[in-house]
């Protein structure tokens, strides 16, 4: 990415696809919906598993491989449609600025220990939002 800065936005999109911050959320369809030959009745409770959708082999070649060169057509890391996350553009911009600053400032960024996920980042909420509680790194100038 340091030599080819155009890879930074692609890397961000692949990170979002590969490890979506929102893994699952509950929804209730307002009308009967047919999906892959199955009818989901109106007002039934369904769980949309975004993490699984972003690993769907019908949409992504070799979906369990992290590939910043991947030509992503779309992913659902921030949901889709009327439920699309309003903070998505800000998250992308902040991540791009952070990565570019790290690439400019440091020769290398290395792991300095195991990453630990948040135990329960959204208590009391329906759904599964993931995040990291601790990500130890070492910066090399």
Describe the structure.
The chain is α+β, with helices and mostly antiparallel strands and 141 residues long. It has one domain (7-105). The protein is built from three helices and nine strands. The strands form four sheets. It has a three-stranded antiparallel beta sheet. The radius of gyration is 18 Å and the shape is elongated. The model has no long low-confidence stretch (mean pLDDT 90).
Q: What's the main sheet like?
A: 3 strands, antiparallel
SSE arrangement, N to C: HEEEEHHEEEEE
Question: Per DSSP, what share of the residues sits in E-state strands of 2 or more residues?
Answer: 15-25%
The residue ranges in which pLDDT falls below 50 over 5 or more consecutive positions are none
Cα radius of gyration in angstroms: 18 Å
User: How much helix, percentage-wise, in residues?
Assistant: 10-25%
Short description:
The chain is of the alpha+beta class and 141 residues long.
Summary tags:
24% helix, two-stranded antiparallel sheet, 3 helices, 141 residues, alpha+beta, single chain, elongated, 22% strand
Secondary-structure map:
Blueprint: H1 7-18, E1 22-27, E2 33-35, E3 38-40, E4 46-49, H2 50-53, H3 88-105, E5 108-111, E6 116-117, E7 128-129, E8 132-134, E9 137-140
Antiparallel strand pairs: 1-4, 1-7, 2-3, 5-9, 6-8
Helix pairs in contact: 1-3
């Amino acid at each position: 990415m340091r030599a080819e800065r155009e890879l930074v936005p692609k890397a961000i999109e692949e990170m979002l696809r590969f490890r979506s911050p929102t893994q699952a959320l509950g929804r209730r369809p307002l009308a009967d919906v047919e999906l892959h030959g199955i009818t989901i009745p109106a007002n039934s409770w369904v769980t949309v598993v975004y993490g699984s959708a972003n690993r769907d082999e019908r949409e992504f070649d070799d979906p369990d491989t992290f590939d910043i060169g991947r030509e992503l057509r779309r992913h659902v890391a921030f949901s889709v449609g009327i439920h699309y996350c309003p903070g998505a553009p800000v998250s992308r911009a902040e991540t791009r600025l952070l990565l570019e600053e790290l690439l400019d400032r440091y020769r290398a960024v290395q792991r300095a220990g195991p990453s630990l996920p948040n135990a329960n980042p959204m208590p009391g909420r329906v759904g599964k939002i993931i995040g990291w509680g601790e990500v130890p790194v070492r910066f090399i100038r």
